[in-house]
Amino acid sequence: MMRAVGQSRSVLHATLAEHAISEQHLVVLRHLYDNGPTPMRGISALIGTDPSTVTTTIDRLEQRGLLQRTADPSDRRVKLVALTADGRTAVDEVWAKLAESTPVGRLDRTQLRALRELLIAMVGPLPPDAPWTL
């Protein structure tokens, strides 16, 4: 199991380096991919940082054209963060590379479900606020 984890981490780090994004950036991008526009405060809670410091992360991703900030139509004081088309493409590319290159990517859906159940039996279920699930 440790070998599979090590191989997966190596692929993850290489893939993120190819796209010049960090693990934290991927968590933000994947959240937006799955959940759509999210208030800055929600991004802050997701990555566990103070709202005033999440701005740096969002700035970097926005400068690269991967996301954009807009005013919330229901409350213009709230800034929403959303993926751009380039951001969606980046998530698709990273996820495809991980799916094809990691040990877990070699498993079919039945095997993935079995692995998920084994992992839950070992360490318990994912918390409800986990960034993404299997």
Structural class, please? alpha+beta
User: Strand order, biggest sheet?
Assistant: 1-3-2
| CATH architecture term | Orthogonal Bundle
DSSP strand tally: 3
CATH class: Mainly Alpha
Sheet of most strands? 3 strands, antiparallel
Q: End-to-end span in angstroms?
A: 17 Å
Description:
The protein is α+β, with helices and mostly antiparallel strands and 134 residues long. It has a single domain, classed as Arc Repressor Mutant, subunit A (Orthogonal Bundle), CATH 1.10.10.10. The chain has 6 helices and 3 strands, in the order ααβααββαα. The protein has helices at 2-18, 23-35, 40-47, 51-63, 85-101, 109-123; strands at 38-39, 67-72, 75-83. Strands 1-3-2 form a 3-stranded antiparallel sheet. The two termini are 17 Å apart. The model has no long low-confidence stretch (mean pLDDT 89).
